[in-house]
Structures are given as C-alpha cells and as structure tokens.
Design a protein that fits this description.
five-stranded mixed beta sheet; D-Maltodextrin-Binding Protein, domain 2; eleven-stranded mixed beta sheet; alpha/beta
C-alpha cells in the first residue's frame, strides 16, 4: 500500500483534516474527494520508514546535483511549477497525474473550449451522462494540462467509450469546431460575429439547433475579505483595471496601491470582462495573468491590496463586491440575481454544435445537459442552473432591490412571487432569443405542478432607452404579449400583460450588453 495526504487545503475536507489515505501500489494516487494528486508520506513501520527516508534524501541530493531539485518539490507537494492549483475547485488532477487511455477506447464525443466550463462542469456532466446511458466503470482519466477524458463501458460493448474534454479557452471552441477537432464547443461568452462567419459552412451557429445555454454564471469582482470597499460602479472597475485608478483611497478604501489579477487572453472569462467592463480599453500591463481560476482567487484572497475577476464558483475565500452601472442598483452575484440575469456581470455559459451534426451523441448529450437532471449538476458544481424549483421562487421583498418603483408595478407585485428568470429579446423586436425558447418549456413544466396550477401569471415587460418613451412603453407591452401568445399555445392564460418601457433599468443603457439586459419580460405569479 502507498500512503499519502491531500494538499488541497481550503477546498477539500480530507486535506483540511490532514487525513492519511492508503492506495494500493499501482492504483490511481489521487484524493478520492477532490482528485488532486496525493503527497506521499511515511509508510508501514519505523524501520521501513527510516530506510525509505534515507533513500529519499539520497535521491533528492542526486536530483539537486543534476539541477532537478525543483522537480522533486513538485512531486512531493502536488503543485504546479507556478505555485498554482489544479485549475478548478477540487477538480481534475494536475499534469503530473497524466495517464494513458485504454488501447481499445472509442471516442464518442469531443468537447473543446472554455476552461470555466471544461475544468469541472463538463467532466461532471460527461460522467453522469454516461451513467444515464447505462455505462459501467465510469471514471476520469487525466491528460495534459486542462484536459481530461471520461470513460465508461456502455451496455453491450466490450471496449470503453470516451468523452474527451480539452479546456484551453472559449476561443478554441470555435477553432476546433471549424477544424473538425470538436463535436461540441464550450464557451463562456456568446459567439462573435467573425467566428459565426468563419463557421458558416456548418450552418447558423446562433440558431436554436446550435446555440445552447447550459448554465449561468456571475462574473464576480473579488477582493480580500479585509478590504473595506463593498461596492464599485462599472466605471470604477474599468478605471482600476485600465490603470487610471491606482490607489484604494480613490474609491473610498484605505490608502494602498491596488494590485491587479486577471485571467489570461484565451479565457472566456477575460473575453466577458473585456466586453462587459473594459469596453475596448486595454487591460493594465501591471495585471498579473492566470490560466488557473482557483489560483487567481487564492492570490487575491491572500493579498489585502488585490482585486480580480472570476466566475462565481471560484470566489472561494475572497469577497465579492456589489456592482452597478448608471442608475442601476448595486447588486452582488447571487443565485437569484444571476438566474434572472439582472446582475450586471451575469453571463451565459454556452454549448455550441454544428446545427446538423451527424454524431448522434451530440444531441443526446445536449438534451441531457439542459434537462432538470443536467441543470441540477450545474447547480451542484457552483454555477446557476436554469430549472425552476420551489426553493428559488422569491417574494417581492426578496426580489426587488430598487426603490421608487412605478406605482402600477408596485401594486401588481405586492402579493406576488418572482419566477427567477427573464425572457429576453433581440434589439427593437419581440423575437425571443434561444434561451427564452427553452425557458418557455421550463415555465410550462413548473406551472403544471398541482401546487401552482391555481396561480395567476403576470407578464411585465421592459425596454431599453433607445427611442421615445411612448414607443418603448408600447414595445415593452408588445414583448409581454409575445410571451403571452407562446404560453397560450401551451395552455397557460396569463392574467396580467403590461409594459413599463425604459423604467427600472437593471444595467446601463449606454452599452449594447446593458441594453440587452434591459429588454426583458419579468414573470410573476400570485394566488
């Protein structure tokens, strides 16, 4: 037997307790809870331990003499050379745990793209998907950095089937789809116009058959827990990360030089930050860059002057700030504010496929990921799933953070509860987007529950500030009526359909993304 301890302190209970674990020689020498490679510790007896220690000391001396002392440190600590973690909270083992695939394995699906999705969510979905297909002996096999293969033996098959996951950034999702190196592209941002054009030979990549929202995430702006700053505007965040604001005293904090931490250029998280916050301005060259989300979060948590941005599951021991823009109310990234996409820096996590993929496993996997079972996995991992459940229905007091509400709006929601999502639309239209089509089905399913069949449905529409006030009010009502029409086709007859134009913005109307968030229909229910 081999004896080891987990070093993933703060992210793994076995590491926190210092528990020693025994693994058979030749077995996978990783923590059973978090999958991080174990650090070897003393063995079975005093004499054996003494002999082993002497051998280890001799080996270390030889390796130091050969210039490889750093390598032995890496082996015993389980850390990467840059001092980082394993790329996710309690996730895939580091490169040193790389294993060979079985010789007879058959790859049935290839996922490529976002590290945010691919580091933990995609492997978890792949495991449960294979199990749902009746596979036995489902397990993960670590590969190169940010790569993992999930294998299992399907019923009636002698050879294992594999789902490969390569998580090198959202940009690579579209590169690999175009090069036929992936069946599913993982992206923590929407496909760009030029990427859509480059993949035109595959079909319309923004169609319902191609663009699938697998979950939601809040891009959290994080600081050290001891930092006195609790809220920043998007302008202040932009000025900080572009180097215009360099001292915490300039934003109401204690005097001290601000230290910047940011994801790397391939990251979908960084792409989203550029789009939602930087708006074309350059990130300061003083920012320390990271490919590893967990490492970035841990460094900010350890630096009282630090500030960074990260996906919600990686807030860990740092503090998330409230964020506002223009006249919107400062909000923290929470399950409710992200589920409704009202939080300024909320984002969608996408799975893109060729609309007419010939691989039948693609549609099976997508449907599983979007099902209630798949969305429960999204929640478990730490992102925000899209299923509607009783525990996420919020009262008006819980759901509304704004003051000075329009009188008619306040009257309508007084005894109502908020369904935690918004229907959203294309600019200047009442055409539902790809997520809204799925949400219609989720709302119909939820309202079929006998506990909610007697509830009235309220559809309250809103618009951005483009155009006249009267035109925006009419457009917001038209959007509410568009949702009503869809629901009537499913047997649900909303009791209230109203619009409030450009009132109650949840984001700035000065940016396209902000206007996207303001073009919405809220769903409320009441007895």
């Amino acid at each position: 037997m081999q004896t080891g301890i987990c070093t993933n302190i703060g992210n793994c209970s076995k590491a926190d307790s210092g528990e020693k674990m025994q693994v058979p020689v030749g077995g996978l020498f990783v923590c059973p809870e978090c999958n991080r490679e174990l650090a070897r510790v003393g063995g079975t007896g005093a004499g054996t331990h003494g002999n082993r220690s002497a051998l280890v000391l001799l080996l270390v001396a030889l390796l130091v003499f050969a210039g490889l002392g750093f390598g032995i440190w890496k082996l015993f600590s389980g850390k990467k050379p840059d001092g980082g973690g394993n790329g996710q909270p309690g996730g895939i083992p580091s490169k040193s745990s790389k294993q060979d695939l079985p010789a007879d394995v058959e790859t049935i699906l290839r996922l490529s793209g976002s590290n945010t999705i691919g580091s933990k969510l995609a492997p978890a979905l792949a495991e449960e998907f294979l199990k749902a297909q009746g596979a036995q002996d489902v397990r993960r096999i670590p590969g190169d950095k940010d790569e993992v293969t999930v294998v299992g033996t399907l019923s009636g098959q002698s050879a294992p089937s594999a789902i490969t996951i390569k998580a090198h950034g959202s940009k690579t999702a579209f590169e690999d789809l175009g090069a036929d190196k992936a069946d599913i592209g993982m992206a923590s941002r929407k496909i760009k116009k030029e990427e859509k054009e480059s993949l035109a030979s595959l079909g319309d990549m923004t169609s319902r058959a191609s663009e699938n929202v697998v979950g939601l995430d809040g891009l959290a702006v994080i600081v050290n827990q001891a930092n006195s700053v609790d809220a920043l505007s998007d302008q202040q965040i932009r000025d900080i990360f572009t180097g215009k604001i360099t001292d915490w005293s300039q934003v109401g904090g204690s005097s001290g030089t601000i230290k910047l931490y940011a994801r790397d250029d391939k990251s979908g998280t960084f792409d989203t930050f550029k789009e939602l916050v930087l708006h074309g301005e350059a990130l300061s060259s003083s920012a320390k860059r990271f490919e590893d989300s967990t490492e970035l979060s841990n460094e900010v948590a350890d630096d009282v002057q630090g500030i960074g941005f990260i996906g919600m599951p990686y807030i860990l021991n740092a503090k998330a700030l409230k964020v506002s823009a223009g006249s919107s109310v400062p909000m923290k990234p929470t399950v409710l504010t992200v589920k409704t996409e009202d939080y300024l820096l909320s984002r969608r996590l996408y799975l893109y496929t060729a609309p007419a993929s010939k691989n039948t496993w693609v549609r099976r996997f997508i449907e599983f990921a979007l099902s209630n079972e798949g969305q429960a996995i999204v929640d478990k991992i730490g992102f925000v799933g899209q299923a509607i459940t009783k525990d996420v229905i919020a009262t008006a007091e819980e759901a509304v953070v704004a003051t000075n509400l329009p009188p008619d709006y306040e009257r309508l929601i007084r005894n109502a509860e908020r369904v935690p999502f918004n229907f959203r639309f294309s600019s200047g239209s009442d055409t539902l987007d790809t997520k809204a089509i799925r949400d219609l089905g989720r709302l119909v399913q939820f309202m079929s529950d006998r506990n909610y069949q007697d509830r009235e449905v309220l559809l309250l529409g809103f618009a951005d500030a483009q155009g006249s006030e009267d035109a925006n009010k009419e457009l917001s009502r038209r959007r509410a009526r568009a949702v009503e029409s869809e629901l009537r086709g499913e047997g649900i007859r909303p009791a209230v359909i109203d619009g409030f134009g450009e009132e109650l913005p949840v984001a700035s109307n000065d940016t396209e993304d902000g206007r996207d968030k303001n073009r919405r229909v809220e769903v409320w229910i009441r007895r």
